[in-house]
Specification:
By secondary structure, this protein is mainly β. The chain has helices spanning 2-25, 232-237; strands at residues 33-55, 69-83, 86-103, 106-126, 130-146, 150-152, 168-181, 187-197, 212-229. The longest helix is centred in the first third of the chain and has 24 residues, at 2-25.
């Protein structure tokens, strides 16, 4: 039953992602240009919960809490806004991803260390001081380290313990958050973000065991950004 639901779930995820990408492009049309662009640079970091959607499913990873691995992430942020309410955000991140197997006689963790580069549309709204925002866009990544797993492995399912076939990763990310813009102390930001990889970590040809092995991540991050170029409008409002 689980093996039937996973392909259906992935199909729905793909449709939702395409719909969100199309909808997110609409605010870029007919936006008012700022007198001067807003430019921010900064750092962010936080905690994440990650897993891998295997098809066929791997024992001891259901419910999803038994298949989730906790880790950390952090990186650099660059944000450029030349239009009102819309901006481009580019990040360079380090991510601790992977999966866990937990059950009777099995307690296994495998951590994958990634360098990721998201290209996000940043849509913001609210007052000059307090703003809510939505981030959405594609991302690419590369696994720079695979610890090959630690703990007690399953004796009945061993295909997931092989070395990675694909270290390059590509997918989409979307986040919701809020930030506060101060006069002299920068921008303080809180964001919850979900990412899903279309690329797989193992081969998925007809002759391979896995038909899908897609990483998935949910993270909670805090950020500190500095505005290095302010608009005349913002100065007048302050």
């Amino acid at each position: 039953m689980v093996d039937i639901l996973i392909p259906m779930y992935k199909s729905y995820v793909n449709r939702i992602v395409i719909a969100l990408l199309l909808c997110s492009s609409m605010p870029m049309v007919a936006q008012k240009h700022l007198l001067q662009p807003e430019v921010y640079i900064g750092v962010h970091g936080g905690v994440l919960a990650s897993t891998v959607l295997f098809s066929p499913s791997v024992p001891n990873m259901s419910p999803i809490t038994d298949g989730t691995l906790l880790g950390g992430n952090g990186g650099l942020v660059f944000r450029y806004s030349g239009q009102k309410c819309c901006a481009l955000q580019v990040e360079l991140n380090y991510m601790q991803r992977g999966w866990r197997e937990h059950g009777e006689g099995v307690d296994y963790k495998r951590q994958l260390h990634y360098i990721e580069l998201p290209f996000l549309m940043h849509i913001y709204f609210g007052s000059p001081m307090w703003r809510g925002f939505v981030n959405l866009g594609p991302q690419i990544g590369y696994c720079v380290k695979d610890d090959m797993g630690t703990g007690i492995k399953s004796e009945t399912s061993k295909h997931q313990y092989a070395p990675l076939d694909h270290r390059f990763d590509w997918g989409v990310a979307g986040g919701l958050g809020v930030y506060c813009r101060t006069k002299r102390a920068g921008v303080y930001q809180l964001e919850a973000r979900f990412s899903y990889a279309f690329g797989t970590i193992f081969d998925h040809n007809a002759s391979d065991y896995f038909s899908g092995s897609n990483p998935m991540t949910l993270s909670l991050n805090v950020a500190w950004l500095w505005e290095i170029k302010r608009t005349a409008k913002t100065k007048n409002e302050r």
